[in-house]
Specification:
The structure holds 2 protein chains of 2 kinds. Chain A is mainly alpha-helical. Helices cover 68% and strands 4% of the residues of chain A. In chain B, helix 2 packs antiparallel against helix 12, helix 7 crosses helix 15 and helix 15 runs antiparallel to helix 16. Chain B is globular, with a radius of gyration of 24 Å. The chains are: A mainly alpha, B alpha/beta. Chains A and B meet through helix 2, helix 4, helix 6, helix 10 and helix 12 of A and helix 1, strand 2, helix 3 and helix 9 of B. Chain B: This is Sugar ABC transporter substrate-binding protein.
């Protein structure tokens, strides 16, 4: 009986290792290939050497990446755009969800349903009208001591951030989480003289850590991976995010080692973020019953 | 917890401030598209291609510093694969720059969409390679510095070992000779698939590479008389014959239904004996193989060997407020030394003989002269109609379906139906 149990656990472990390996292989291949010259990448392709850092290994591809693409600038842009989108997204969406969950407002069900209904519309269908729309918006700029107003947000940072702050899925996630927090806590806080914002800030949000972690990751990933939108609204190289950079490598003669090096550079921050938030992320998904 | 929330808000403010300061840094160039004062903006597809971009920037610098410049030109570079999307979005927002570069076959569509205005240049274009001058409805809308040419690359030693004659521009392989060559190369037993036609390619590669083969059979993408229907051209007997032949290359084990991602690299790694590629790969292949590299013309499949014509070209947008300066810059940029500089940087075929004479590789007797001959003798322009982007998409889908095993006549009929419906729904794409 003991032997059967041990065999079962070995079998389960083997299956887990197999799944882990399948998930890890593309990343290992990317990292290893980023250290090899093109000829060796293709030469190793049909053997296990494709996953091993052996042969002519160097950091040449990484050096070449920085020659071809202003990678540091793109990384700074993406970090900034993603961070601002995440932080403002957490603030705005949680406030909205708090109002819908805790406040007694007539018609809030209709509002909540309308917000959820926006999830049905794919972004691609809205993209072109949105380009036209953001190009009509006023832009305020402080020039010395005078405030200048111009028209159009194209080719700016805010056009890459503001349209993506309000997010129906984040509101839904927060709403569902807030519903699980006892309303008696609000009443106790009110007796102590707290107003709505204090309840939000000091009672509800501190208890919504796992939801915040999930919203952070689910907002960060599309912001980091953003490709179509910046392609349409950003013309200046100085304002471009990392994902546009990958296109720089697809010339008539593609340098695959450089592609892999750049892909490694832009993947690492995402992996680090996921590892840092892993526990909260899984907790939140488990407690809200929502799949990402 | 209160502290934590305060920290989050503080981080938010700090991040917003960071973005604000970055925005201030980026604003200098962002305003370039506003084209204020005596500055006009030029968009190019060369981001990530430092050699070509440097050559373009050098021409612009020379023009800007010349006393005769009618405006200062500001260059903004975009990555090639996403360039068209950026232009279409800018057009939708009314934010196109004065000068744009365009992939040749898209010129009629952009002219029809009123993105472009006819060129009025002081340069004589009559001696340019025909494929470097884009015309539509009798007007010239774009002109390029270079073209590229498709060809077959092999190792001379392999051809000799298999007892195959090396094809020449004057005497290309016939369909029967090609079949024989593939059979003999396969018999050498060196490769799983002796031929690599780049079947993993996507997008514009599919019509660029394979529609000349269809044309060599006698078919075409569309009836060129008025460009109102593809019926008979893309689904006639010749087209079906082409489709069956093309699929047959895979069925006989001569080529993979889906090749490797980089056909040239696979050829250089000796994973294939014959590769269908182009002039852009010549220098790399020559560096690797030296004198063993054999560059041969495409196969004559009945109506003479054909290759695709037209590469990247320059045009002036219809909304440009200083089109006189834009035309002046383009005229200046077409000087032979400028064309030669770009062709040298990119390894492409210079648009004029005068420019070719400045480049030993493309001058008479030069190692790349063959590509100039191929371009002049065999290039067929992709159909000069605004419907081309749609036709290209349908043809690309048809090629992939045929390779995947679909019945050729059914697939081609479906493509013709879609193309004809598109032309009709756009009122025949009349100007």
């Amino acid at each position: 009986m003991k032997n059967v149990l041990r065999l079962n656990s070995i079998g389960a472990m083997a299956v887990r290792i197999l799944f882990a390996a399948v998930a890890a292989f593309p990343i290992v291949f990317m990292l290893v290939s980023s250290l090899k010259p093109d000829q060796q990448i293709f030469g190793d392709m049909s053997s296990v050497a494709a996953f091993l850092p052996i042969g002519n290994i160097s950091l040449d591809n990484y050096a070449a990446v920085f020659d071809r693409v202003p990678a540091a600038r793109f990384l700074i842009n993406s970090v900034g755009i993603s961070a601002v989108t995440v932080v403002l997204g957490i603030f705005i969406n949680s406030l909205c969800a708090f109002a819908l969950s805790r406040m007694q407002v007539r018609g809030k069900r209709v509002v909540f349903t309308a917000i959820l209904a926006t999830l049905i519309v794919p972004f691609q269908t809205l993209a072109l009208p949105l380009v036209w729309w953001v190009n009509q918006l006023p832009y305020f700029e402080l020039n010395g001591f005078s405030l200048e107003i111009s028209k159009g947000w194209l080719d700016t940072y805010q056009v890459q951030i503001i349209p993506f702050i309000a997010n129906a899925f984040s509101i839904y996630l927060y709403h569902q989480y807030f519903e699980s927090i006892p309303k008696e806590l609000d009443e106790a806080a009110r007796i102590d003289g707290a107003g709505w914002f204090k309840i939000y800030r000091q009672v509800v949000m501190p208890l919504a850590g796992p939801a915040t972690a999930t919203v952070a990751i689910l907002t960060f990933l599309p912001a980091w991976n953003s490709y179509l939108w910046p392609l349409m609204v950003v013309q200046s190289e100085e304002l471009r995010p990392v994902m546009i950079g990958i296109q720089y490598f697809f010339q008539l003669n593609v340098s695959w080692g450089e592609v892999m090096a750049y892909a490694s550079l832009i993947t690492v921050p995402v992996v680090v973020l996921f590892i840092a938030f892993q526990r909260s992320f899984i907790n939140s998904i488990a407690s809200s019953g929502v799949k990402g | 917890m209160n502290k934590r929330f305060t920290r989050i808000l503080a981080t938010s403010i700090a991040a917003a401030a960071l973005m604000g300061s970055l925005a201030a840094c980026g604003k200098g160039s962002a305003s370039a598209t506003s084209e204020g004062g005596n500055e006009i903006t030029m968009w190019t597809h060369n981001a990530g291609n430092p050699d070509e971009l440097a050559a373009i920037n050098s021409i612009v610098d020379k023009y800007n510093k010349s006393g005769a410049a009618k405006a200062q030109i500001k260059v903004q570079a975009f990555p090639q694969d996403s360039y068209n999307d950026s232009v279409v979005s800018a057009a939708a927002a009314g934010k196109l720059p004065c000068i744009v570069d365009i992939d040749g076959p898209n010129v009629p569509n952009w002219a029809w969409a009123k993105y472009l205005t006819p060129l009025k240049l002081s340069t004589d274009l009559s001696k340019n390679l025909p494929s470097t001058v884009a015309k539509w409805e009798g007007e010239t809308y774009a002109v390029g510095y270079y073209d590229v040419a498709l060809a077959l690359f092999a190792r001379a030693s392999d051809l000799k070992a298999a007892g195959i004659r090396t094809a020449t521009v004057e005497k290309p392989w016939t369909k029967e000779e090609f079949q024989d060559a593939l059979t003999k190369l396969k018999a050498l037993g060196k490769w799983q698939y002796p031929l690599d036609m780049g079947t993993a390619g996507t997008g514009e590669w599919l019509p660029y590479a394979y529609s000349p083969l269809l044309q060599s059979f006698g078919g075409d993408l569309v009836n060129r008389d008025g460009f109102q229907s593809a019926d008979g051209a893309l689904n006639g007997d010749k087209a079906v014959e082409w489709a069956a032949w093309f699929r047959g290359l895979a069925d006989q084990g001569f080529m993979a239904k889906k090749s490797g991602k980089d056909s040239t690299q696979d050829f250089l790694n000796n994973k294939s004996g014959l590769v269908y590629t182009g002039s852009w790969a010549a220098d790399k292949a020559r560096t690797a193989l030296g004198k063993d590299l054999a560059i041969m013309p495409s196969v004559d499949l009945g109506n003479g060997p054909k290759i695709g014509g037209a590469s990247w070209q320059w045009g002036v947008t219809s909304g440009c407020k200083n089109s006189e300066a834009a035309m002046d810059y383009l005229s200046y940029s077409l000087k032979p030394e400028n064309i030669a500089a770009v062709a040298k940087a990119t390894g492409t075929i210079p648009a004029t003989d005068e420019a070719a004479a400045l480049l030993p590789a493309f001058a008479e007797g030069g190692e790349n002269r063959i590509f100039m001959e191929l371009s002049r003798q065999q290039a067929v322009m992709r159909p000069e109609t605004p419907a081309y982007p749609f036709i290209a998409t349908e043809y690309a889908k048809a090629v992939q379906d045929i390779l995947a095993g679909a019945e050729p006549k059914t697939v081609l009929d479906k493509a013709v139906k879609a193309i004809d419906a598109n032309i009709k729904s756009n009122g025949g794409y009349k100007n």
